[in-house]
Amino acid sequence: MRNLRLLGALAVGAGSVALAQDPELSAADTAWMLVATGLVLLMTPALAFFYGGLVRSKSALNTMMMSFVALGFVGVAWALVGYSISLSPGGNDFIGDLRFAFLNGVSLENKGAVAAITIPHLLWMAFQGTFCIITAALVSGSIVERMRFPAYLLFMTLWSVAVYAPLAKWVWGGGFLADLGAWDFAGGTVVHINAGISGLVAALVLGTRKDFGRQAILPHNVPFVLLGAALLWFGWFGFNAGSAWGASQSASIAFVNTMLAPAAALVVWALLDLTRTGKVTAVGVATAIVVGLVVITPAAGYVSATSALLMGAIGAFPSYFAMLWRARSKLDDSLDVFAGHGIGGMTGAILTGVFGQKVIAGVEVGYFNGLLAGNPQQVLIQAFAVLIAVGYSALMTFILLKLVGVITPLRASAKDEATGMDVTQHGEEGYTSGEGAILVLESGEPRGKPAAAKS
Amino acid sequence: MKLVVAIVRPEKVNDVLEALYKAEVRGLTISRVQGHGGETDEVQTYRGTTVKMELHEKVRFEIGVSDSFVAPTVRAIMSAARTGEVGDGKIFVLPVEKVYRIRTGEEDTAAVTPVA
Asked: Which residues pair with B29 in a beta bridge?
């Protein structure tokens, strides 16, 4: 997403009144953004597979459900209030107002949005909503296999409004971080640092799984993890190239960078694996793809293709070693949301300040120069934005979890956890044979004896 | 020699393995089984189809031991697999007529004594 400092200034105070500077609605841009919005929405089910494969089979459904329900609960919260308080032109530098609550006044014209757009305002709202959904789902990776589902639903819904929306306002909605000149193309700060830090705090508040550190807890379906990584990468083209808000040269460089950075991260990760253990791992490669994508996200439309390769390669290191450390620590951030998205997001945000350049491949599509282009100050501005995001995200997540904990217990009982979250939270199993199951009729009387086990 | 057959909760398997290891019981076989021992039925629903899970997932241990190892083996399983609720499982101790170690042809007690 582009920085809205200039664009936003035009819209602030103007409300829904059409501005003379409003660009024309573009069919080409609209076509691409329709596709991009669908692509980003696909990332959430993709994440369900990525996360679902990484947990034990007795909690596979529960873990996948944590992502899937975000499509509903966060999607609805976004339409009702989230969009308005994060991206309405009114309010102040810290939070938007409620003018777009219940999508009131969000039209099919390209007018009224906080930014100058060439696509219908309503489509832009939907595109932004898919970001909020995936961010909330990302957090779930750190608290899998132990959080009561009702508590999770409440926490996630509140989180999308109280944590995501204000942060989106600060960075993308013409808020104070945008005014400072911090740049975040597609969500390094708002999405990844935010989810990573919230995940870290949530893991600390909830505590470790009962079995953590006592016995090996292994991924139950590595092919799911690879499938999830593949679909995430595919969806991420919409996430990054869609953040140009049009079918443009900016979208093209973001698209290319989204292809190259994960490629470089994958190579570095595989070589690190190879030199350290002698084997290249599948879970490692899937993780590398995600880390590469996270790192390039804030920079996607601001850096050259060569820089994207460098960013992917450099970005693999901090996350790789953070994960090695985490697995041996007492921190049960179960699916490494912090090491992957938190550390990866910070690396990406800082490197955006290093590699950013106005002129990319002969065309001026960037918006600022970074350290290498002679503007070292940009690195400090980026770092400041990172600190603000870390502080706010950590504090608010902690408060929200404590609040939800007062209303309803956060942790499943030790027995439920041991039996598996699928059966205890959902009354279903991911992998059930049906053998020994008795059909319960409405009278409540079981019909017949259990079917004989197949030979 | 005896064959100790134990049916335990799947979530207790790691605890049992750890206890057996500490009791220096080495050779064992486990298998996933389904069974019913009087525990409360668990109700599941799939799109309006409600079912009771009459058979529960369990894990069966089969451990061939020399006579002196029977008591430690049973003690280890008993303490590690117990939760105190219905469905903790059973331990059976069966007589064994003959044991052979396939690799060496050793018989009986020699065959169930772990290789040093």
From this structure: B62
